[in-house]
Amino acid sequence: MICPFCTFDDNKVIDSRLSKDGYVIRRRRECLECSGRFTTYERIEEVFPLVIKKDGRRETFSRQKILAGIKTACEKRPISIDMIEKVIDKVANKLQESGEKEVLSTRIGERVMEELKHLDKVAYVRFASVYREFKDLNEFMNELHHLLKKND
């Protein structure tokens, strides 16, 4: 592991902890050159399907892209990073369980929205407005009305 402070490539593990769900190991490390401390996470290497983008390109599945989108939608909301990670885990697990070799990006976006709808309605609407690329206020209002009807 390369030190993020001095780029030296030798360090020692100071502390290791298993996550609550048991799928991730958190390790605190100390650089043997500069004594800088940093955290790494170790998880099982998962095999995900290729993601087919709207323009037909194919790319590898990225937890980081989903994380960035959800974090933006959840900004200034009472949602912890652990809650966001659980949403990503659920979406990722469903993808793996599907056994498909390729999946449309739209299906991933819909799954994220479904999870956000249960987590926080405001975050859901924020994510949906960017994901669905609302063209005007009417499209946005239609989505809000649809959401409100489901809650009645």
The largest sheet, given as strand count, sense and whether it forms a barrel, is: 3 strands, antiparallel
What number is the mean pLDDT? 90
Structural class based on helices, strands and sheet pairing:
alpha+beta
Return Rg in Å. Answer: 19 Å
Q: What is the straight-line distance between the termini?
A: 52 Å
* Number of structural domains: 2
Please give the structural blueprint.
Elements: E1 11-18, E2 24-31, E3 37-43, E4 50-52, E5 58-59, H1 63-73, H2 81-98, E6 102-104, H3 105-119, H4 121-131, H5 137-151
Parallel strand pairs: 4-6
Antiparallel strand pairs: 1-2, 2-3, 4-5
Helix pairs in contact: 1-2, 1-4, 2-3, 3-4, 4-5
Description of the molecule:
- There is one protein chain.
- With 152 residues, this protein is of the alpha+beta class.
- The chain has five helices and six strands.
- It has two domains: 11-43; 50-151.
- Helices cover 46% and strands 20% of the residues.
- The strands form two sheets. The chain has a three-stranded antiparallel beta sheet, with no helix packed on it.
- The protein is elongated and about 60 Å long.
- It starts with 10 loop residues before the first strand and ends with a helix.
TL;DR?
By secondary structure, the protein is of the alpha+beta class.
